[in-house]
Design brief:
47% helix; alpha/beta; 189 residues
């Protein structure tokens, strides 16, 4: 398996992670793709600890070896020496990175003021003419923009991202680089 340097991107939605990935991808050594399922795979695999067959014959060493191998196998065919795995959940699951990937991880977190994030979501929905089965509107019969904002800030993607980001900053402040959306857009260099 080729050795790659893995970094992570989390942060808030609608805060420039796609723009930042595009900028980073201009460097031929970097790969920064769309949202990745690596974290979800690790969580699913780790949940095998609760499986009856595993409990009957636990093999923790093998399970943890598999957990360590997920990200390397995920990027195995990527020829770039530096890969940035993007998932907004990373800051809420730093223990997975530290235990199975890198004891001193670096996570890039694009951020933006909350009002602008909500405005961006609502603008995006309006641009798409409020599709009936948008990931937000499926939770309401006749949603208003206030309903949508409350959902986004509560159990929705923005609320979850804020909680994950704050937990990451609180527990691992030296491992997180905050990138302000306005700074990124106005001073790209």
């Amino acid at each position: 398996m080729s050795l790659k340097k893995i970094y992570f991107m989390a942060g808030l939605p609608r805060s420039g992670s796609t723009l930042l990935s595009s900028i980073l991808n201009q460097n031929p050594k970097f790969y920064s793709g769309p949202n990745s399922s690596v974290l979800n795979m690790m969580i699913s695999m780790d949940n095998f600890r609760n499986d009856d067959m595993f409990k009957a014959h636990p093999n923790t060493v093998s399970l943890e070896t598999i957990l360590r191998s997920i990200i390397l196998n995920f990027y195995y065919y990527n020829v770039k020496p530096i890969c940035i795995d993007k998932n907004r959940g990373w800051t809420g699951y730093m223990e997975y990175i530290i235990k199975y990937i890198d004891p001193n991880p670096k996570i890039i977190c694009p951020v933006r003021d909350i009002k602008s994030v909500l405005t961006s979501f609502i603008t995006l929905l309006r641009k798409n003419n409020y599709p009936e089965n948008s990931f937000i509107d499926v939770h309401f019969e006749n949603p208003t923009d206030d309903d949508r904002c409350r959902y986004l800030l509560g159990p929705g993607i923005l609320g979850q991202s804020i909680v994950n980001l704050l937990n990451g900053i609180k527990q691992y402040p030296n491992n997180i680089l905050l990138v302000d959306y306005d700074e990124l857009v106005n001073h790209t260099d």
